[in-house]
Amino acid sequence: MNNFYYSIPTKILFGKGQIENLGQTVKQYGKRVLLIYGGGSIKKIGLYNKVMQQLADNGVEVVELSGVEPNPRITTVNKGAQVCKEEGVDVVLAVGGGSTLDCAKVVAAAANYEGDAWDLVKDASKVKKVLPIITVLTLAATGSEMDAYAVISNMETNEKLGTGHEEMKPKVSILDPEYTYSVSKYQTAAGTADIMSHVFEEYFERSEGAFLQNRMAEAILKTCIKYGKIAVESPEDYEARANLMWASSLALNGLMHYGKAGSWSVHPMEHELSAFYDITHGVGLAILTPHWMKYVLDETSVDKFVEYGVNVWDIDKNQDKYVIAKQAIQKTREYFLSLEIPMSLREVGIEEEKLEVMARQATRFGDIKGYKTLSAEAVLEIFKAAY
Amino acid sequence: MNNFYYSIPTKILFGKGQIENLGQTVKQYGKRVLLIYGGGSIKKIGLYNKVMQQLADNGVEVVELSGVEPNPRITTVNKGAQVCKEEGVDVVLAVGGGSTLDCAKVVAAAANYEGDAWDLVKDASKVKKVLPIITVLTLAATGSEMDAYAVISNMETNEKLGTGHEEMKPKVSILDPEYTYSVSKYQTAAGTADIMSHVFEEYFERSEGAFLQNRMAEAILKTCIKYGKIAVESPEDYEARANLMWASSLALNGLMHYGKAGSWSVHPMEHELSAFYDITHGVGLAILTPHWMKYVLDETSVDKFVEYGVNVWDIDKNQDKYVIAKQAIQKTREYFLSLEIPMSLREVGIEEEKLEVMARQATRFGDIKGYKTLSAEAVLEIFKAAY
User: Which of A3, A312, B141, B154 has the most CB within a 10 Å radius?
Assistant: First the structure.
């Protein structure tokens, strides 16, 4: 097990009706809030009104930034930072899914930065003072509610980059599974795939001795497999929504990572797909994952795939190890298919002639140092297999 | 899944050599420290000198409280609080196992309380300002390094009571598995049983829908089962010590509890054994656990035992459910035996004629509202079976 520094300071208010604590919570951190949200779905489900009521009841003044994109753009971040400066905002409240939360994090950092917020995305060490961030989550997927990270797109440069800073961890996140009832089947499936991919990126890794972390990773994977399907079929199943929501937070708050080295592979590849085509991140991950698994399966990784197959998919362990490994990969693919995720890059509108430029772009800073090192050629091979 | 409020603010420095960060860490919280430790084993392993060096190098002044008992006593706590007041201590540093940490927590709370510290043990709501607490852990067992709780004994009244307060959570804990190399086989076995019991107390519980928490609980149990044995046999196996150490923290920092109601049964029974006889807590838990399991096994609990047996012990699921449940209980008992834990109350020196008074004492505030409600008669029946 590797050495680690554990710090998960975000407080969580989890469950039905926790929105009743929002006003008091925000008031502890400031009196002039920038409320950030996306395309208006929070109005449709009545959450916007509840939020405004809570803030008004607690004497918190509100300015708004709406229209955050599914892949949040740096132009929107800069707009939010500008509002913070002009309006003397002292706390940022994000209400929505991971995109809205990611946008809010960089807004909160950029509010105290003179210059283009894209600088902070490219170089997190430039982040200094960050406004306190509170979130109300409406989609179980990215884990942004409990971590330091944000992914921001720059459509001018076709770049989609991650950034992160300890100070960007939300102070408090409200997780009410009922606010995810209205999430579409498609987005529920994509969110489930996103959570699973976060776990895969830590699980398939070469460090030795992190047994506990591996068993916990399997706990989250089994939870996703069970409840992703239920939530897609019965969107108002509280138990399913609650398990997925808590899984999304634990998958990426550090618990899966502490003690391991991390070796992210599929996310860096997928980021190029959604940078170029604005496709749903979780869908891109689901499409690529089984093909990436096939690509990395070899004598050095087969035992890990056996562990995965036996512990997560309950595959009979008394078989040849490659048989088990391939069954595990097949089951992963079939599972995503059962969630009705389109399982090829062609189906989500990606053009074959763009694969090469995206593969080059994914490795523009060098090979992807993942579970198995991936060159541009390797990425292209995976993209082609997934086409 | 039940609603919950998650707050785990303790930062962890985990792994070899983390002691190098102690001085800087303490300095962030104060400049005059009360160093609390037990019977001097920290001197034997060279840790005391390293701690003193770190504090000196960082200009931190030290006063000491040594001789904390294995079941820490309120007299010692009061002595520590007195020293804090007289010496103007502004930060408490506990170096040792759970007993030392527990003692330090109540010392840190009592330093700002006028009166007998026993008041704070009996009524945690009296805890107000608590001195910042830093810990260096030398025994994987109680989880005290990352939680709000402390158990203190009063030998005058034959009472052993738990107390807890959010402010009593350590600010930072240093967890270096190498400092547990010198823990005896007996204490390693007892510590493993303690960790497992913490998980059992949350796992065997009636709330519905906490699937993720249950799978994580199994992850910790499997970790204990694998590495408890290895650590007993090979005390300097880093991987085993590391997995047990991290398991001890995650078993009791709240992760297993959030979303569930909790239904502690074996701890309240065991506390009477060690209050009367000063036996090793984990040993008492190991002795009682299988008998408690047998006692609570019925039509309402059998499915839970099947879950436990199949998921943790890999018992063939294609059997009668009571067969699986009984095998699971038997395997639990055999496991503790394999760690060379004496598995009867008689063997640890408890007198049969005291069972009744201890059973009455365990239920003096009413029946134990555990997984199954336990009256004084029920507790006595379990004690007798375990004798």
Answer: B141
Across the range A291-314, mean pLDDT stands at 97
Alpha helices in chain A (DSSP H): 22-29, 41-44, 47-57, 74-87, 98-110, 118-122, 185-203, 211-233, 238-252, 266-277, 281-296, 302-313, 321-338, 355-362, 376-385
Check pLDDT > 90 for residue B170: yes
**Shortest Cα distance from B210 to chain A (angstroms)?**
7
Q: How many CB atoms lie within 10 A of CB B338?
A: 14
Nearest-Cα distance to chain B for A168, in Å, is: 16
**Which of A9, A14, A208 is opposite residue B9, by nearest beta carbon?**
A9
Q: Residue A339: phi, psi to the nearest 5?
A: -85, 5
pLDDT digits (tens, 9 = 90+) for B350-387: 999 999 999 999 999 899 999 999 999 999 999 999 99
Q: Is A56 on the interface with B (CB under 8 A)?
A: no
pLDDT tens for A102-123 read 999 999 999 999 999 999 999 9
Tell me where in chain B the CATH 3.40.50.1970 domain(s) lie: 11-179
- Tell me whether residues A238 and B5 touch, CB distance under 8 A: no
Say which CATH superfamily domain B185-385 falls into. Dehydroquinate synthase-like - alpha domain (1.20.1090.10)
Residues 145-184 of A with CB under 8 A from B: 177
Question: Can you tell me the ipTM of this complex?
Answer: 0.96
* Average pLDDT estimate for A59-81: 96
CB nearest A246 (choices: B208, B250, B259): B259
For residue A239, which residues of chain B lie inside 8 Å, CB to CB? 1, 208-209, 211
